[in-house]
Design a protein that fits this description.
mainly alpha; 79% helix; flat
Length: 104
């Protein structure tokens, strides 16, 4: 029997949801679709990490996980008013990325 890891199923569902948002062609749905694509990418990396134990996936996984809260804040804040993302919101993902890459 074919075995598909659960993160790939979740990624597929997120991709379908993002595609349905893009198909609406509304201005407000583009950012939500972008956020869903980021979540789909993250869960795909989790699934690949289950299947393949590559070093670059181990480094990429915490970086993507650190980006999700920043993008979530930006998408939800932007839904209320047009604001730009402050630079200090990128500080945590940068520190996580640097720590992930330089960890022995």
């Amino acid at each position: 029997m074919l075995s598909i890891p659960l993160p790939f199923v979740v990624s597929l569902m997120l991709l379908v949801l993002a595609a349905s948002l893009v198909a609406r062609r509304s201005e407000g749905t583009r950012l939500a679709a972008l956020f869903l694509l980021m979540c789909a990418l993250t869960t795909t990396v989790v699934g690949l990490r289950w299947l393949l134990d590559w070093a670059w996936l181990r480094a990429l996984q915490p970086i993507l996980a650190g980006l999700i809260p920043v993008l979530a804040w930006w998408v939800f804040a932007r839904a209320r008013q047009a604001i730009s993302l402050p630079w200090w919101h990128w500080l945590a993902p940068v520190v996580i990325g640097f720590s992930s890459v330089t960890y022995p």
